[in-house]
Amino acid sequence: MSLSRKRQKELKRLRSSAEDLWGDQQLVIDRANEVAREVTRQLKALSQEEVVPRVRSGYQGYVRPRLSQAKELASTAGDSLERAAGSALGSVLSIGDIANDTRVRRALQRVAPAAAPAPAKKSGLGFGGSLAVVAGITIAAGIAYAVWQTFRADDELWVADDEPAPGAGSSPAL
Questions:
Q1: Dihedral sign, CA of 59, 63, 69, 70?
Q2: What is the C-alpha R_g of the chain?
Q3: Could you read off the pLDDT of 130-147 as tens digits, one per residue?
Q4: What is the dihedral of CA 65, 69, 75, 76, to 10 degrees?
């Protein structure tokens, strides 16, 4: 199939125009890539100059003090629990030592030889064990309550700066 000269010139012009358009598109895409790289660089700089310091100050001002308070509270509660448990255990052991002391047994036998029958073996926790369990549960509940108070949302922290004026939402009467 042969084309007329006129058609060949038109096709040549069209091909040239398409190649020019392709070259222009490549230039636009290259420029868009340059702009995107510059935007990325600017965003990185902005985040380093503005966002990171604000996040750090927020952490230092709010999160870190709350964590240190929680740590101190847990430490204090642990120390209190250790002292209470140690004191209770020491009391129970000292009572047991006194009851098992041969001098105390002899003295009791001299005072009331018939009134002190041999104690029967008991099974179960007994008074001291029950007391230790109740103390442990009470202390654990106290620690849980203190941790809950530390980490609960405080409604007073989120008060709006400007209170709406009364009747601000209604339209004035004509």
A1: negative
A2: 43
A3: 888 899 899 989 888 888
A4: 150
